[in-house]
Amino acid sequence: MPAALPTPKNTVLTAAVIVAALGYFVDIYDLILFSIVRVGSLTSLGIKPGTPEMTNQGLFLINMQMGGMLLGGILWGILGDKKGRLSVLFGSILLYSLANIANGFVQTIDQYAWLRLIAGIGLAGELGAGITLVSESLPKEKRGYGTMIVATIGVSGAMLGYWVAEGSGFGWRNAYFVGGGLGLALLVLRVSVFESGMFQQVQAQAEVVRGNFFSLFSNPVRLGKYLRILLIGVPLWFVVGILVTLAPEFGKALGLTGEVTAGLAVFWCYFGLVFGDFLSGMLSQLWHSRNKALQLFLVFCATLVGVYLFGVKGASPTVFYGVCFVLGMSVGFWALFVTVAAEQFGTNIRATVATTAPNFARGAVVGLVPAFKYLSGALGGIIPGAAVLGGLTLLVAFWAVSTLPESYGKDLDYVEE
């Protein structure tokens, strides 16, 4: 392993930031691709559009992908602290790239499900490893700008996903091939990135235990911080995994004047995320506070969820997509959330936390989906069901942020006992 190079004090756009940003770009492309091609791909596999089976099979496949991310989050997080940030960054990209290429050949729902599980395992590693590497490589006063760049470039991968899957006429199978090919092409950039110096220092200390996932549960203070971090990320996946992915179903329930597609809803949501991630990262730097920026965005998100569910009844699809754009802006705190996760813990378990936290938050969809189904049935429709579930997730997340120690400018060169 080559020695870590010092980071120039006057730059943010380092090789680590560029590679992490491009890796996250491909990660997001692949992560949301199923939401875009759900109806088209399942229709070609024999599921009739507009039927309960279409919704149920779609939710099943999302759960398989998110379940894989839960497993992968633990796997890659531990490996990131034991073997290094770079090994995870590129190992995860290789796995999900191959899985997505294979996904383009599926002929049955079962094949689709297993490959979404494998892809989910691969997708679990890139963001946490990338954010950890960037956070440890940049000066503490500038690392927020680095992770802001990673997020802003990364989430725009969703727009490429929409264009390839629907705008270009390539078809859903070719969209998976393109995603896999982009990931494999990204691997050649590995030669320009050096391992984190903080990790190498800890790696040289044989007495330091690295990547012990269970150490998060052995100390009440660590456990409390970890659980609160997980709760902060859940609202974003309530918005993306339920409100936006099921946009056609919500469009019908809201009595829109025309039909809406999940692909366009995802496109506009992630277009908004580009601006939201930039704004949240910038505010956290200007205010010298991660927590204040997160609190503002959670209030913003609660407002837009209310508009989405109750403010566009009978509106046109154009108005609905506009709301999806602003709703995406309101949840544009994803990389800030992962940055906070990395900043809260020592070098010997930092990758474990920064990788498991976003994937457990993403994996919350596995629990949100049955909760959404239950509440929708009990309350007489998907609108009140989503309102109650969204309100609960946002309230809990706001509490979690408000009780978490501030981490802006924190020195990260330490280990957990």
Automatic annotation (TrEMBL):
Transmembrane annotation, as ranges: 12-37, 57-79, 86-106, 112-133, 145-163, 175-193, 226-248, 260-281, 293-312, 318-342, 378-401
Keywords: Membrane, Transmembrane, Transmembrane helix
Family matches, as SUPFAM superfamilies: MFS general substrate transporter
Topology with respect to the bilayer: Multi-pass membrane protein
InterPro entries xref list: MFS, MFS_dom, MFS_trans_sf
Annotated Major facilitator superfamily (MFS) profile domain residues: 16-417
Cellular compartment(s): Membrane
The protein, known as: MFS transporter
Species for this entry: Hymenobacter glaciei
